[in-house]
Amino acid sequence: MKPYKVGLLGLGTVGTGVVRIVEGHQHHLMSQSGSPIEISKILVKDKSKARSISISEEKLTENPWDIIENPDIDVIIEVMGGIDQTKELILAALERGKHIVTANKDLMALHGPEILLKAAEHGCDVMYEASVAGGIPIIRTLIEGFSSDRITKIMGIVNGTTNYILSKMSQEGAAYDDVLKEAQQLGYAESDPTSDVEGFDAARKMTILGTLGFHANIALSDVSVKGISKVSKEDIAYGKKLGYEVKLLGIAERQDEHISISVQPTMVKQSHPLAAVNGVFNAVYIYGEAVGETMFYGPGAGEMPTATSVVADLVAVVRNSNLGINGRRGFVPYQEKKLKTDEQIASKNFILLHVEDKAGVLAQITQVFAEHEVSLESVLQHPNQTNPLAEIIIITHDANKASMNKVLKQFESMGAVHAIKSVYRVEG
Ligand SMILES: NC(=O)c1ccc[n+]([C@@H]2O[C@H](COP(=O)([O-])OP(=O)(O)OC[C@H]3O[C@@H](n4cnc5c(N)ncnc54)[C@H](OP(=O)(O)O)[C@@H]3O)[C@@H](O)[C@H]2O)c1
Q1: Residue 8 Cβ < 6 Å to ligand 1
Q2: Atom of ligand 1 nearest to the CA of 105
Q3: In this predicted model, what pLDDT tens digit does every residue of 42-89 receive, in sequence order?
Q4: Which domain holds residue 209?
Q5: pLDDT of residue 331
Q6: Which residues are catalytic?
Q7: Do residues 192 and 116 share a domain?
Q8: Which one in 96, 160, 225, 325 has a CA-CA gap of 20 to 30 Å to 412?
Q9: pTM (2 decimals)?
Q10: What is the 8-class DSSP label of residue 358?
């Protein structure tokens, strides 16, 4: 039987796992897909680099066009990362009728619609399961498993680095900077951690999940983003006292066709399943009108978990090819995108204030909330250990973002309020 030929762009962490699975599970993959699968050419930056798997010299190339222009290659697996050059290569491959499997969330979040359009023009498959939550099959779940339901909320812990940092801070009472340093030493955080800790990586993944969940072309610029670099161990300790864990959540919501999408550190009630997701693990919580609550949990990265998703996509492409249906079942967003205004975005909130420790201040504070029609679930006040100010922790009921912004602005100009120490969305 003629083997299905793969061109692999990249032989790093994920590419190595792909080779291990394709070579190690040949019989299983053939029974799943209907064809033998062969990796015929692999693009690397440096052919002389030592590899942890044995690869014959003639399979490696440093020239991407050896793969893109090779008429024998049926599918390209892109696990080299990057955006501009990678996009050019993928579009060129699609023009030549090659199917694409990619793990590249940066590329799909920024250029997904253009790539999917090109694929449709050329009757090609583009699959990107590993681009969100590495080893969790969340993209197939959204496209196929939820095709009968209407999703109203997606909440994701989709960045392992930040979840590792926040879990450690919570478990050990440690400070952000110390845990970040440790995460860098262990290889869980990059030497430049900006993309992870400032929430940009999670925002790219939420762009993909929101687009699939709500069938609208959501752009990266539609996601409001706040990272974890300002989360203090004091915030985490107060949260725990009140029954919350701080998690970096991607939150996509839909109500009456209006969508909001954000990434932000969030106080998650300890009884909510997302609060129990610790370390580098990922989880995606999805609420469907018919099904109700669901949650998907697993490894968000790593050689073999990520390669599992990549090779599952490869099997799907080969199966489609044997059935003659490549490019026929692509995901097509059919909803017009309507973003919520600040008046339409509502949530509970946690606010920690430092205020003058004297009679009447608490009444002034609660009066500000009342003026802007924000009702309160609880108010706690106690003297600060280290200075003459009092600390007030307020949990609001659901309040819209516009009203909350007005409340915070008013606090900024009040003499009795010395500092708005922190503000978190509350979930669960
Ligand atoms: N690592 C994970 O757990 C994970 C999880 C989910 C998604 N992803 C995504 O998967 C992709 C790959 O990640 P990775 O961790 O496997 O990356 P990696 O370990 O850095 O490997 C990248 C590979 O691509 C090759 N490469 C990079 N740029 C190249 C260029 N311009 N020309 C030729 N070869 C080039 C490198 O060649 P050399 O080997 O010669 O340097 C290397 O083999 C990224 O898009 C990433 O976001 C990764």
Answers
A1: no
A2: 47
A3: 999 999 999 999 999 999 999 999 999 999 999 999 999 999 999 999
A4: 138-299
A5: 77
A6: 205
A7: no
A8: 225
A9: 0.96
A10: S
